[in-house]
Amino acid sequence: MSHEQNSRRLIHGTIMTPEDYALTVLMLLALFANLELVIDRTNYARGKSKINFLVLAVIFQNTAIPLYWQMLDNNGGSSDSEQRIDLIKWFTKTFPDITIAQIYADREFPSSEFIAHLLDKNINFIFRSKDVLATDGSKRVKLKTLYPNLGNLPNKIKVDDRIRRIYNNRVYLHLRLNDKNERIYLVSNKPSIDAFKLYTKRWTIENMFGHLKSKGFNLESSRLTATNRLSNLFLLMSIAYAITVKIGYFINSFKPMKTKVIKEQIGLRQTKEFSLFNLGYNFLKNILANYLTNKVVLKQLHRLLNSKPNASIGKHSALYKIIVNF
């Protein structure tokens, strides 16, 4: 009962500020410049309550890690432009010396206000878009009417070499047909020929939500509905998630995983046989089940977690032997 009460007190109070949490994650993963960020939302129901997280995540080794989030009080619906802008403002104010290499987001997120803010701050972005209006010379037409012979182009991809006005802003348009012959639209501030390849990184946040919810930490199983308690629980899970991913990264650097190619709506994506989270998660379960009383192993594991991601451990150490035989 005392453990339960302590847990309740922990998630009811202030564990750490969002700024301290984000700094802890960036230092843990040694991320200090040219960060790739991704925005998405996840929601679920608990009784009559609609739980709705709007999350800004940082990409580390093709894995998204929560960096900052807002609890939306909008009955499980989408965020608005102001809330999306607030995420970016929070990051640039908190980390003014860290550059943003790219921001990715799905078709729920582009809007005239949000894109205008990113253009004003000279922040690179690649967003998937709905079939909205775009300028075509002196006309405004739906995206689906552009390039009717798209299927005849190399790789069924077209990268505009001229700026169009979309979402009331001057952006570049990228089009392609997927394997179902459906049109996929991307809007960006740059005419990158690799836009579709880069955009596959957006999927990392979907995997992150899966691991935090039903495929790992079971966030949805919590009976919490109070906003502050849910946010604190999400923070604790995010810390554990970041640590687990870092352990997975170390294991993969010693014993590299195989790669595989998977098919998505946006195109083919090459990925590892397992996620870094799953690799670290299973390794930690192995450590706890078999080596919990081995102080030497636990001391080495603690040292590893407090080192830089490119650190190494001796090949004759007990922890190294456990990793290579894992």
Characterization of the model:
This protein is of the alpha+beta class. The protein has a domain of 228 residues: Transposase Inhibitor Protein From Tn5, Chain A, domain 1, CATH 3.90.350.10. The strands form 3 sheets. Strands 1, 2, 3, 4, 5, 8, 9, 10 and 11 form a 9-stranded mixed beta sheet that branches. Strands 6-7 form a two-stranded antiparallel sheet. It has a two-stranded antiparallel sheet with strand order 12-13. Strand 12 and strand 13 form a beta hairpin.
Topology:
Blueprint: H1 2-12, H2 18-28, E1 35-46, E2 49-60, E3 63-71, H3 81-94, E4 100-105, H4 112-120, E5 125-129, E6 133-136, E7 139-142, E8 157-159, E9 164-166, E10 169-177, E11 183-188, H5 195-199, H6 203-212, H7 227-254, E12 259-264, E13 267-272, H8 276-290, H9 295-305, H10 318-324
